[in-house]
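> forwarded from #structure-qc
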């Protein structure tokens, strides 16, 4: 036997014993089934969320934070390429298997299914568990018992006034557009929760660097400004989004990193953390974000008061409002100058946007977030509770 062949045989990895193979394949399925069986037990979810999931996510964040790029994006890119390679190789193996084609196909499908279940099972126990534990509002006694239109108007006026005071103090270009340095916003995020943590101690936990997304262009096309990924403990922001929204987005994703799961609660925490911080740029972004939600609620409650408040806004606030509208509108269309190409690409963009939103809406509803994507606006109730005694 040739020496080379002997060496290859020497280092050949022996197949796993059948029992071990079955256990490796069955474990993620058991893990996932166990999550769905226990998710209605709030006490269990509270314990796992606080004493298991949170430390593990923090550990992952500590490991990934030294890297200036997103480990999530790199990992998903590699997984995507490997999945394409795996599919192509599987097709070739099935074609050349002849009498064992069905067995080969089933084995390849089993392997990819097990891999997906490992990822989903880990995600369920590290993140989805928080949707079934007690939320931030419940843990801190923030219970909404109704509010009058007058209270909504008063709070909206306060946010409009503060935003109008701060907007002219932001750096702006020659056309009046928000021009604060985005890298400075990312680097300033470390101290954003310092002040609010005195009021809500659970927000005093450890946070890690917020990372700019390599695929910001894709986030823009799907209508998202940031994402927190529990499997790497990383918070990300879409750096293409309008600059005046980025500080509030940073605070929102850091709220997720600190264990605030529900989107409406993360928005609320982002706003109160930003407006109570010592950073004037974050203050403005927080008041601006809160103003957008309050104005949305005002539109249905009192259109006359809505119009009066809008007219009272500083020109810089209205400029930022308009820039946000124009940016997100532009992300729904494609303009290459070639009509039929623009039509096709715009249709693809619309389909991508709607599909991603429908999937995420379904994900939220499947995890006990009954309002789905509408829960992003439910933070108005929490703002009314929080600012009422103030």
């Amino acid at each position: 036997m040739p020496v080379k062949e002997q060496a290859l045989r020497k280092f050949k990895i022996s197949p796993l014993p059948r029992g071990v193979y079955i256990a490796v394949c069955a474990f993620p399925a058991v893990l996932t089934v166990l999550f769905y069986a226990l998710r209605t037990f709030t006490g269990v979810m509270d314990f796992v969320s606080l004493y298991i999931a949170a430390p593990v996510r923090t550990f992952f964040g500590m490991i990934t934070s030294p890297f200036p790029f997103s480990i999530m994006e790199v990992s998903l890119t590699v997984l995507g390429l490997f999945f394409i390679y795996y599919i192509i190789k599987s097709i070739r193996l099935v074609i050349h298997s002849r009498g064992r084609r069905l067995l080969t196909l089933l084995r390849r499908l089993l392997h990819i299914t097990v891999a997906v279940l490992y990822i989903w099972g880990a995600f369920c126990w590290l993140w989805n568990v928080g949707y079934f534990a007690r939320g931030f509002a419940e843990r801190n006694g923030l219970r909404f018992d109704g509010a009058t239109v007058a209270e909504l108007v008063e709070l909206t006026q306060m946010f409009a006034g503060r935003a109008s005071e701060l907007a002219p103090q932001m750096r702006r270009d020659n056309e009046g557009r928000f021009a604060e340095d985005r890298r400075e916003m990312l680097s300033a995020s470390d101290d954003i929760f310092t002040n609010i943590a005195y009021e809500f101690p659970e927000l005093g936990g450890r946070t890690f660097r917020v990372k700019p997304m390599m695929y910001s262009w894709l986030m823009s096309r799907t209508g998202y400004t940031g994402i927190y990924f529990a499997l790497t403990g990383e918070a990300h922001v879409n750096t293409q989004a309008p600059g005046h929204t980025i500080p509030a987005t940073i605070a929102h994703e850091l709220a997720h990193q600190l264990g605030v799961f529900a989107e409406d609660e993360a928005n609320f925490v982002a706003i109160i953390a930003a407006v109570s911080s010592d950073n004037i740029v974050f203050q403005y972004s927080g008041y601006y974000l809160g103003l957008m939600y309050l104005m949305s609620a005002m539109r249905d409650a009192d259109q006359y008061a809505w119009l009066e408040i809008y007219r009272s806004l500083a020109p810089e606030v209205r400029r930022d409002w308009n820039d946000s509208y124009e940016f997100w509108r532009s992300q729904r269309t494609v303009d290459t100058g070639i009509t039929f190409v623009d039509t096709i690409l715009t249709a693809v963009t619309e389909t991508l946007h709607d599909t991603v939103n429908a999937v995420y809406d379904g994900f939220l509803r499947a995890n006990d977030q009954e309002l789905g994507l509408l829960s992003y606006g439910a933070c108005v109730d929490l703002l009314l509770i929080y600012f009422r005694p103030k």
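QC bot note: Residues 127 and 230 are 6 Å apart (CA to CA). Residues 372-377 have pLDDT under 50 and may be disordered.
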